[in-house]
Amino acid sequence: MSLLEVKNLEVSFALRHGDLVALNDVSFTLDKRERLGVVGESGAGKSVTGFAVINLISKPGRISKGEILFDGQRLDQLSEKEMREIRGNRISMIFQDPMMTLNPVLTIGTQMVETLKAHRKISTQEAREIAISKLELVHIPSPERRLTQYPHEFSGGMRQRIIIAIALITEPAIIIADEPTTALDVTIQAEIMDLLTELCNSQDMGLMLITHDLGVVAEVTERVLVMYAGKIIENAKTADLVANPMHPYTKGLMNALPGHGTCDRDNRLQQIPGSMPNLTEIAPGCSFHPRCDFCQDICKETAPELRKIAGSGDRLVSCHFPVGEQVQ
Amino acid sequence: MNGPIVEIDNLVKYFDISGGFLEQLQFKSGKIQLHKTEVKAVNGVSLEIAQGETLAVVGESGCGKSTLARTVMGLYPPTSGSVVYRGERIDTLSARQMLPYRQRMQMIFQDPYASLNPRKSVRQTLEEPLRFHRKKITAVEVDERLSEVMEQVGVNPAWRHRFPHEFSGGQRQRIAIARALVIDPEFIVADEPVSALDVSIQAQILNLLMDAQDQRGLTYLFITHDLSVVRHVATRVAVMYLGTLCELASTGGLYATPYHPYTRALLSAIPRVDGKKRKHIKLPGEIPTPINLPSGCVFHGRCIHADDRCKREIPQLLSVSDSSGTRVACHGIAEGRI
User: With b meaning 16 or more CB within 10 Å and e meaning fewer, what string describes A183-217?
Assistant: First the structure.
């Protein structure tokens, strides 16, 4: 059994004109030590997926269908009090902007100790020692001295390390990282990516990495979910997906990346026409069909199922005509 | 090869952040002194931008790339050094004298949500520069010009009465580009024009910028932190670190053989999708503050090759020995140590 199993998850927001379905039939699993990427453009539903797992969908939104199983426990049925035992303790979350996440008027020591004491009966002295060990784990030099400093005394990369240290402090089984490197410069991004990979292995954690950056996904994760307009449209091993994307959207996304494949000034970037639909105006049939080069009549009428593709291992693709599928 | 369109010589831009008179007072060895605090954003950058090329300036946040662009545009007066546009020094001109140059130089900004006035329709946004620079233009001509430029950037001219909030991010950036193109400039400074956009939209905008360049023979100064974008659009690349230029090379040359240790680290850090695992070069330490610049080479504190000379002496931008035409500011490269 997987550590985390999400089955047919649907999240909808009750609006004046009826329900807006933000996530539609999302299923995936995450194992111990596994690094899972969730990739897509803005509005695809990546972050909502992350929030839904730890039950942080706020009104008017709700989980309207499906199950979330963590260690055999139904997270979607827990009360808020029970959920608090899990959230920030067994499942931690890292957000994009390290300056927004840390409290600017408390020292980082206070913030780390506070997190630990919220979840465990422990003396302040013990908590401090654990905090120091976690700061060492994320490679912050002279952690004892650093504990007494405030967030503004750290650089952006250091702050993100501290956020990671806080997420680690309760020794969680899963970390959900929502765009953890987007606000950082490339050299610092590279350090944080290396750190996250290293920690998954040394701390036995599962990582759910939510990002819009295919490059980051390719470097960090082992398996990847590609999302489009609230649905998973491709679920594959990262290496397979990168070598051979099968959904036309994934393929378009890869081709649109500058600096990938045939890249120089003489080659125009291949572009996907149009932009992602607003969730209120999703086309019938396959939600990608208005932008798809391979669109046929069936795509305009019937939404494709997320299905196994013969001869491509355990890959799932939601398309009537996946790129490179062998037709029998 | 055409002559340079813009020549930047030893450009320096400091920002005074010391605040009011009382905040500048400091008590030192028994005396009260006035103390100024300055952010040294750009320190002696010299560049030439040739007609028809795309010169990309890359670097991490705080390296002074946007300040450089804005100083070239005349939005900031330089602290010292000069900006020469087609043989004419423009950094000392008055606002009135600058007017003819403003028609020839335009700017595109990063965030199309912030750079378009939400209370102006597309039509108002686009006709303002036209009416300002061409006083005698007739209403019919304005109309024709707007249709033409909207067509070119891929926004339906029938939407000219709409307001920015009715457009998506990609379409807004197209309108911002149309605003820059509407008075037929020859030189465009694009400050992170695609950083705020999604990948599929980013490709559309990059293609649009490159098409406009082909059709109109534009020259771009392209500011970005994204090295993959640079590789795609630029003909030459200038790498900046802490307000100084460390490497200036043709795009092909830079990606084939990066010389400066910082450029190497920067290139190794780009996440790639080809599935091969690469070692990232780790830079020890943090970027120093531009208020107190390190002595000598600004990069010496984070460079594994640094020696005593690097700590004392500021390296000059020198050509490397191969035929690539790359110029590097590094003692180690000049001495053949690296």
Answer: bbbbbbbbbbbbbbbebbeebebbbbbbbbbbbbb
Dist CA B162 CA B120 (whole Å) = 9
Total domain count for chain B? 1
Q: What is the pLDDT of residues B285-310, one digit of tens each?
A: 878 888 889 999 999 999 999 999 99
Helix, coil or strand: residue B66: helix
Chain B contact present for A236, CB below 8 A: no
Q: What range defines the domain where residue B328 resides?
A: 261-338
Nearest-CB residue to A187 (from B226, B252, B283): B283
CA gap A242, A264 in Å, rounded? 20
A245 touches chain B (CB under 8 A): no
Tell me whether residue B298 is in a domain.
yes
Quote the CA–CA distance of B218 and B31 in Å, as a whole number: 57
Size of interface A-B (CB pairs under 8 A): 128
Residue pLDDT, tens place only, B152-206: 999 999 999 999 998 988 899 999 999 999 999 999 999 999 988 888 888 889 9
**Does the residue B276 lie in any domain?**
yes
Spatial contact of A314 and A238, defined as CB atoms under 8 Å apart:
no
Q: Which of A275, A288, A292 has the highest number of chain B CBs within 10 A, making it the mutation to test binding with B?
A: A275
Nearest to A186 among B200, B203, B266 (CB): B266
Where do the domains of chain A lie? 4-90+170-231
ipTM: 0.81
Cβ-based contacts of B251 with chain A (< 8 Å): 264-265
Pairwise CA distance, residues A11 & A26, whole Å: 9
Domain assignment present for B301: yes
Q: Which CATH class is domain A4-90+170-231?
A: alpha beta
**pLDDT per residue over A17-67, tens digit each?**
888 899 999 999 999 999 999 999 888 999 999 999 999 988 889 999 999
